[in-house]
Write a structure and sequence with these properties.
This protein is mainly alpha-helical and 105 residues long. 50% of the residues lie in helices and 8% in strands. The protein is built from 4 helices and 2 strands; from the N terminus they run αβαααβ. Strands 1-2 form a two-stranded parallel ribbon.
């Protein structure tokens, strides 16, 4: 199986697990919510170690409606927001934090 197939299967399994946990905790009326962040291609030290990182960066910036890549701060801001009481009714969601890159195909 190609690597991308394993990655897609792993993501699908994680998303399914998030939904299942959200249902279980929801039925218990604990107030616990379960969500996942689907970060876009993120500028990070790990990305810079990928041999074709320049091509990945170029493609990501070209595809992203904002013209930039996701930053660790973008992801952190989403996590902080979800942890707040303002989002206590968001449950079982997979939230893209990518500036709209995921909608461009």
């Amino acid at each position: 199986m190609p690597t991308y197939g394993r990655v897609s299967a792993a993501k699908a399994a994680l998303e399914s697990h998030v939904r299942q946990l959200a249902l279980e905790f929801g039925h218990l009326r604990t107030g616990i919510t379960v969500n996942a962040i689907q970060a876009g291609i993120t500028m990070s030290p790990a990305l810079m170690k990928v041999p074709v990182h320049r091509q990945i960066i170029e493609l990501s910036e070209r595809r992203n409606p904002t013209g930039r890549m996701t930053t660790p701060q973008d992801v952190a801001n989403a996590i902080v927001g979800l942890a707040g009481s303002e989002f206590d009714f968001v449950n079982g969601a997979v939230i893209p934090v990518d500036g709209g890159e995921s909608i461009t195909g």
